[in-house]
Amino acid sequence: MSVKKGVSLIGLLMVVGLISCSQPSIEPLDKDAVIVAFGDSLTVGYGVSEDKSYPAILQKLSGYQVVNEGVSGEVTREGVLRFSAVLERHQPQLVVLFEGGNDLLRNVPAIEIEKNLAQMIAIAQAQQVSVLLIGMPEKKLFSNTAPFYKKLSKQWQVPLEADIVGHLMIRASMKSDYIHFNEKGYQKLAKAIYEKLQVSGAL
Fold first, then answer.
1. Domain 3-200 is found in CATH 3.40.50.1110
2. What is the pTM of this model?
3. Which residue has the higher pLDDT, 14 or 195?
């Protein structure tokens, strides 16, 4: 191998290493770990039966107990108020934090949504509970995930599933109404979350 090629290879490996180190990770879950799915109607599984909700499907995929702590219509301000009690009740090792959609629909200022999500992440981390953050798209057609989700992921070093919700929202075949998924949509959502947990090191 030439010196030039050797240097190039070393440089490439360094870049790959830096990229991998920059991705937030989750400590591997214990065998008896509990996962809490915390969110609004998309966590509840509005539009399908309880066993077709994403937490129920995630439980089957992962083999872990996944507790559905979704509340239809909830905004992040309300989520903050019950978050500590949910952690106390279930003693989870991991929380899938899937909130902010109702705030965005109601035009709640981004800075307020970000503050509320940050407060929930801080509460979890103070109790050594890992967090997987699920991003929601902005309130416009074919929109990207609201920017504050990526900001929170970087600031608090929590993994973010940024794409799946926006991907499903623009596909009528995945939805039961304007903002909720159907059985196929929730299956896709659960699979994406499961794969993100694998990539992040939790599973």
1. yes
2. 0.88
3. 195
